[in-house]
Amino acid sequence: MTPHSAHRPHGRFAAAAPGPDGMRALPASFFARPTATVAREVLGKVLVSRVGDAVCAGRIVEAEAYLDAHDPGSHAATRGVTPRNRVMYGPPGRLYVYFTYGNHHMLNLVTEREGTAGAVLVRAVEPLEGLEAMIARRGRGGVEVTNGPGKVAQALGIDLRHNGMPLGEPIAVCDGRPVPDEAVGTSGRIGLAGGHELPLRYYVRGNGYVSKGRTGPRPPKRPHAG
User: Fold this and answer.
1) 3-state secondary structure of 89
2) For 74-83, what is each residue's pLDDT tens digit?
3) What is the reported pLDDT for 103?
4) What CA–CA distance (Å, rounded) separates 33 from 49?
5) pLDDT digits 0-9 by tens, 200-214
6) Which of 1, 26, 43, 87 is the most buried (most CB within 10 A)?
7) pLDDT-based confidence at 12, cuts 50/70/90?
8) Rounded CA separation 186/73 (Å)
9) pTM
10) Mean pLDDT of 110-114
């Protein structure tokens, strides 16, 4: 880790076991809380990946909360537990990874107490370590490396193999500099047909790695030309 990215945990969520490269990984108790709270407080935390031979890390700068069956934008808005959303019901502190749009993996952090659905989608990170490996996986540099949820998963080498894994190894969330309230923006969520208006997206104001997606309803598909 670069010196400015290594931070010791503090408060009641100090981890019991070390994370990658001497950093202290956050314990499951950090995630076993209301999903919106975790989505706000995960800003500034450091997402670390040790997939393959690369050690990559990035500061989380954008996240969205997805709630239980009453949230129309959530995968839990179904008639009970399904093979796809099962991981969202816990235990907390695990990875929920799914494949969407035919070519993107999405990285989520499972929240709430076991039995209650909830997950936080990591939408963007600011690279701190392993940038060369991230660029090689993404095939491009600059903010395009990690300024969107599919880009984050690809840059960190995360895919369906990691779905359901407990955070720790090879993927961890470690403590980082807290982001003050005045530096945090909120909005509706991005890319949803329903539930887009709920103010459950949290981001670090002015950070260049925050995604450029528009909030609001997902645009309708264009009909194929006949």
Assistant:
1) helix
2) 999 998 899 9
3) 84
4) 24
5) 999 999 999 999 877
6) 26
7) very low
8) 17
9) 0.86
10) 97
Q: For residues 75 and 120, what is the distance between their CA atoms, to the nearest angstrom?
A: 12
Q: What tokens appear for 82 in the block?
A: 């399904």
Cα(63)–Cα(189) distance, integer angstroms: 9
For the chain, domains (ranges, CATH) are: 3-204 (3.10.300.10)
Contacts of 183 (CB under 8 A, 6+ apart): 204, 205, 206
Contact between 80 and 62 (Cβ < 8 Å) = no
Query: Does the pLDDT of residue 94 top 90, yes or no?
Result: yes
Give the angle subtended at the CA of 180 by the CAs of 175 and 185, to the nearest 5°.
105
**Residue 212 to residue 12: CA distance in whole angstroms:** 35
pLDDT for 223 equals 55
Structure tokens at 117: 């659905």
Distance (Å, whole) CA 51 – CA 65: 25
Closest CA to 20 of 170, 215, 203, 206: 170
Please answer whether residues 65 and 172 qualify as being in contact, where contact means their C-beta atoms are separated by less than 8 angstroms: no
Give dist(CA 193, CA 32) in Å, integer.
28
